[in-house]
Automatic annotation (TrEMBL):
Organism for this UniProt entry: Malonomonas rubra DSM 5091
Domain spans labelled Dinitrogenase iron-molybdenum cofactor biosynthesis: 13-105
Protein's UniProt name: Predicted Fe-Mo cluster-binding protein, NifX family
Region (Disordered): 119-142
Bias type Basic residues, positions: 133-142
Amino acid sequence: MRLCITSTGKEMDAKVDPTFGRAPYFEIIDTDTNAMELIENTAARQGQGAGIAAAQLVADKAVDGVLTGHVGGNALNAFRTAGIKLFVGASSQDTVKEALAKFKQDEYGELTEPAATFPCGPERGLGPGRGRGLGRGRGRCR
């Protein structure tokens, strides 16, 4: 399988980036041979539509699956249209190498339905604080 893992750096020891569309790099790894191809996510610099543009960038590399922490609805739809499997829940504490090992041990399930919407509002992360809900929860209002 050709698996794309979102990454903060250019090597297998780099940490996993938990956001798909804004991840700086995509490491495409052949899960049988561990051969790796690195792609810079040029879509991350876009103001809007980064998820869809990044999904197209990955789809153009003929990947079979994507492993990341979180993916937005538009990118999810793009993956479904392209027939790319999506695996979420990767931790920013793990390196790409560790995430790959966990993937090979079936620790990530395939996302088959959109993730539940988190209830947001002034009391749940969108208040007047400096983070505007984009702290550790990355705007997902945990």
